[in-house]
Amino acid sequence: MKRRDFLLHASATVGMAMGLQNLGAYAQGGREVVFNGAGGIWQDNARNAWLSPFSQETGIGVIDTFPFDVGKLSTMVRTGTVQWDVTDIPGEFLGLAAERGLLEPIDYDIVDRHVLPSEDYGQYHVVYGHFSTNIVFNKQRLTGTERPENWSDYWDLQKFPGPRSFRRNPAVALEAGLLADGVASEKLYPLDVDRAFRKLDEIKTQVRWWTSAVQSVQLIADGEVNLGVTFNSRAIVARDQGVPLEVVWNQGLLAAVYLAVPKGAKNKEGAMRLINYIVQADAQARMANLNRSAPANLNAMAKIEPAILKDLPTAPENSHGAARIDELGFWAQNRAKIGKRFDSWLLI
Amino acid sequence: MAIDLASRRRGQELRRSVLPGPAANAPSASRGARTPFLSESRAYALLILAPLAVMAVLFAYPFAALVARSFSSPSGPFGHYIDLLGDETFQIALWNTFLYALITAASTALLGYPIALLLASVRASFTNILLLLVLVPFWTSVVVRCYAWIVLLGRHGVLNESLSRIGLLDAPLQLVFNGVGVIIGMVHVMLPYMVLSIFSAMTRLNREILAAADSLGATRMQAFFRVLLPLTMPGVLGGFSLVFVMSLGFFITPALLGGPRNLVAAMVIRDQVTKELAWDDAAAASVILLILTCGTFLVAARVFGLKRHMPHFGR
């Protein structure tokens, strides 16, 4: 009983402290910007690369929270208690959030869009970086001399027997299937969904489906799968920590990471100024160097250390053969339908 | 909570009737002399008002809103229900949910009973150490425990490697990322609830009854099956229902230790809320799960005579 009391008090205190921290944002009369990031090491890197320098240069304080949750965003907007001014938002939720009226249009009078390629900004979003999903393999478990070089190899159960992995999500898996079946990367869209599922049937019994990035690396590290897919930055960090894995850059599947402003954000102007700061070449390069992730602003590429650059999916020698996932076009329109089909395909 | 209160109240009645004389009568005598502002029963009624108000605001209202939401479909009040119940994915998820909860409850009862018996049989100092061993996993994060199971049960995990090293296995056993993994993980999480429930029933048991069975010539087996087991059945059934109901809401364990086929209702609801923003569907799915849970419970109460074993159940 005593211990339970203690836990109750402890959790109440922590809860109160968190509440106070959030209140702090409003106490300053909305001068500060609340930035909602992805959490973990990424959050530390964002603080060092973007948020602290922004505060120093502009005098605008930044409070950072995490993570993004589309349910939370929806509740905040509906109840008029919007806590975030800028939020990181995964591409799979961007279309849904915009459609439900949960986002503010980006103010391009403040955000200088000309520093970004034309496909990297839109009415409700700005792209701040790119990542890719790549084939990786465990060097110690792959006993033969053959090494996987593309998605056709990934599908080859003779050359590479045993389980392999995919994220439990139709995007990437369907694209990979079509590439394995010989579809050219520039002719992927609109996806031939039937053909992709047929191709996935070939390896269905040998696929371990992961749901979190941590899991994707764990599967490789534990030898649960010999071949797997994971995100480029996860793979590089794991490799540098001593996991015996190697990344196959060829036919990587590129996707973007986005920033958006919730509808009714308390400090809209501050939000736009922070977004503008983040997409400038200096901030982009600092983040790339710290987080080992690819910038959206291509002028930043020249400011990235060579040792980091060689492991980026958008570096010229790595991006050869890569395809970009059409998140805001094809997937925004077809995600619900294909998602349902994917779920029942998995079950049966 | 209600169970605890009820048994405690009965204990007090018992003590009062057992202890006659001034000890039991004195308080009421002095009370009569002072004529208090509130009678005892009215004071209790007032005390219960505060928690009732909290429950009304924090549980009853949101719950009513949830139910109302589940009926708000453009295609008629039952639109979401018809869609969901006709959806094969949801049907399979519901079936898995109940199957896993049932297997988990049964397995924890079988595994928990001997543990509780051991706890109740050893010296008090050992009981505390053993209780600690039961409780330590209880305080560990479910996510951490799932990853620990993957390390132990994986293709190249501790178990498979040791078994193949001593020559018992040709190919690794598939123990995670399937139904087996889900059950192992769920049983591990729920076992302490079962052990504590049975253990508390055993500590309440009068030991002399067992001595009496012995002196009347019962074998150890007879004493167990005809005396100990029936008398501790309320603990088993209480634990069973607790574990069963809690198991219906699992989603981390099936998500991490299961494969693509081990979908459960909570995972479907979670995706509806956090991925699709389909809250009306999520509300309907929750109501379906709730109705089926209550229904199962009522049927079980009838069939297994829960009232007989747990007289305070349903009060």
What report would you give on this structure?
The complex is a heterodimer of chains A (348) and B (315). Chain A has 348 residues and is α/β, with parallel strands linked by helices. Chain A folds into two domains: 14-130 and 256-309, Periplasmic binding protein-like II (D-Maltodextrin-Binding Protein, domain 2), CATH 3.40.190; 131-255 and 325-347, Periplasmic binding protein-like II (D-Maltodextrin-Binding Protein, domain 2), CATH 3.40.190. Chain A is built from 14 helices and eleven strands. In chain A, strands 1, 2, 3, 4, 5, 8, 9, 10 and 11 form a nine-stranded mixed sheet that branches. A two-stranded parallel sheet of chain A has the order 6-7. In chain A, strand 1 (33-36), helix 2 and strand 2 (62-65) form a beta-alpha-beta unit. Chain B is mainly alpha-helical. Chain B contains 15 helices and no strands. The longest helix of chain B is centred in the N-terminal third of the chain and has 34 residues, at 88-121. Chain B is globular, with a radius of gyration of 25 Å.
Which SSEs are present, and which pair or pack?
The complex is a heterodimer of chains A (348) and B (315).
Chain A: H1 2-27, E1 33-36, H2 40-58, E2 62-65, H3 70-79, E3 86-90, H4 91-99, E4 103-104, E5 126-138, H5 151-154, E6 164-167, H6 170-180, H7 193-203, E7 207-210, H8 213-221, E8 227-231, H9 232-240, E9 245-262, H10 268-278, H11 281-291, E10 294-295, H12 306-309, H13 316-319, E11 323-324, H14 327-347
Parallel strand pairs in A: 1-2, 1-3, 6-7, 9-11
Antiparallel strand pairs in A: 3-9, 4-9, 5-8, 5-9, 5-10
Helix pairs in contact in A: 2-11, 4-14, 6-7
Chain B: H1 2-18, H2 22-34, H3 40-70, H4 79-85, H5 88-121, H6 124-135, H7 142-153, H8 158-165, H9 179-203, H10 207-215, H11 220-247, H12 252-257, H13 265-274, H14 279-304, H15 306-309
Helix pairs in contact in B: 3-14, 5-6, 5-9, 5-11, 5-13, 7-9, 9-11, 10-11, 13-14
